[in-house]
Design a protein that fits this description.
The structure is a homodimer. Chain A is an alpha/beta fold. Chain A has 8 helices and 12 strands. The complex binds uridine-5'-diphosphate (2 copies) and manganese (II) ion (2 copies). One manganese (II) ion binds next to loops of chain A.
Chain lengths: ~250, ~250
């Protein structure tokens, strides 16, 4: 079984991003989607979307506290995103894995706006400890990648902070759920420097460079892209209100 | 049969956008994808992608001449995009429809970066002349939409140039292929004002407001979103070259 942990937050493009991501996931068998809203409530938009998605899912919510939350004017890299949400997903997964006899399972952290090839899921499905692969369109480069020498990861092709223990994006690895149970306290945290989320989790799981299993044909194929959806500028809503006395119908779910 | 006409152009995010769009289309039956590259050649990226896509397709190419082509520094609305490509798609479709006995068919202009709900295709499948529906995240509004009064389109909910005969986005309508054959010269053109592509085609097809068939529950549901994928900034490729003597491996297809 593949468990996907996806933090998601309200924004104009949220439903569009979730819809197209769900269409990718519908092509993958034995997958369970853990979706955690960055919100005080489970919103109707996400709840209704999930109900009709045709996917197996678990829906949770936890709000990022205001002191670490990105504001509309912050550059998006200023603060960590999705930390509490991914941890909530890990917690649910550990509890669930302990309750039932654990079948072989893998966990992957799938942001809601990335683009995933179907083939990526087949690569990660057979992960003994931690699988790794390149990620396209990230780090100010065409791609970032583990450097693989004779089947072993020896370092990181990345410009930004290559000295990090695991200098890769969240989209670049999957973990066998067994490791989560063997290291029950390993998780993400808002209390580390920028770029150290992945290293915090993997170090907490006792992973060493030599444990990493290079996938995607020895890290030579791009099967996931760190795409981002452009923020819509509602520059005419106000003008419309002035002209017509009303803007778009807020009962229309976008 | 639904024929989709999709212009596509080379860019860093092209393959990612095509991959996720193809996963949507794989959920739709009786669909034929006419994909026209804005290029002098059929590129290996698109050719290989299509070959393994599992979709029925026709692959063509025609380059936008430099005098009307957007440059990297132009704002994206400055010049029309995809005009020659959509016309090439129309031409192929007319020729093909004339060659074989025409089965009922509909044509839709599907840009490669939008987000489509599966349900949209079921709405357009039964189009007598021209179907219409709202489009999300467009025109500086949450959505633009035909205004429907007692089942008939009476005007356009749009801020920008509402006086256009058909004041809607390319993603907002589908046409019965019969109309293309009855009006063999109707097509798009680079020689009209901004925003008049849709009106040019539909006027050329002899369509009147009263011909429009409102879909998506009387134009009350958003089933397509005018999403745009953020342009990736390769700000570290040059720095990487200075540091390592080389940047990313250009043999890695992204
Ligand atoms: O305040 C926020 C911002 C983002 N996210 C989620 O965290 C993940 C990463 O965020 P984003 O895609 O914006 O980050 P980037 O593309 O910059 O890596 C995505 O699934 C978002 O929906 C969140 O839960 N709360
Ligand atoms: O020089 C170009 C720019 C765009 N396009 C295609 O034309 C369509 C509309 O372009 P875009 O999505 O950039 O327009 P917008 O999102 O601004 O409507 C898309 O399918 C693009 O791939 C093209 O063929 N040549
Ligand atoms: Mn993202
Ligand atoms: Mn577009």
């Amino acid at each position: 079984m593949i468990y996907l942990i996806t933090p998601t937050h309200s924004r104009l493009e949220q439903k569009a991003d979730l819809v197209r991501l769900s269409y990718t996931l519908l092509h993958v068998y034995n997958i369970h989607w853990i979706i955690i809203e960055d919100s005080d409530i489970k919103t109707p938009v996400v709840s209704n979307f999930l109900k009709t998605s045709g996917l197996n899912y678990t829906h949770r919510n936890v709000k990022t506290p205001p002191e670490v939350k990105l504001t509309d004017t912050d550059p998006n890299w200023l603060k960590p995103r999705g930390v509490l949400q991914r941890n909530a997903g890990l917690q649910w997964l550990r509890e669930t894995a302990l309750k039932k006899k654990l079948e072989p399972a893998v966990v992957y952290f799938a942001d809601d706006d990335n683009t995933y090839s179907m083939q990526l899921f087949e690569e990660m499905r057979y992960t003994r400890k931690v699988s790794v692969w390149p990620v396209g369109l990230v780090g100010g480069l065409r791609y970032e990648s583990p450097i693989v020498v004779r089947g072993t990861v020896t370092g990181w092709f990345t410009y930004w902070k290559p000295q990090r223990p695991f200098a890769m994006d969240m989209a670049g690895f999957a973990v066998n759920v067994r490791l989560l149970l063997q290291h029950p306290n390993a998780q993400f945290t808002n209390a580390v420097q920028r770029g150290y989320q992945e290293s915090t989790l993997l170090s907490g799981l006792g992973v060493m460079l030599s444990d990493l299993e290079p996938k995607a044909n020895g890290c030579s194929k791009i099967l996931v892209w760190h795409t981002r959806t452009e923020k819509t500028k509602l520059k005419n809503e106000d003008k419309m209100k002035q002209k017509l006395g009303r803007g778009s119908d807020l009962n229309m779910e976008v």
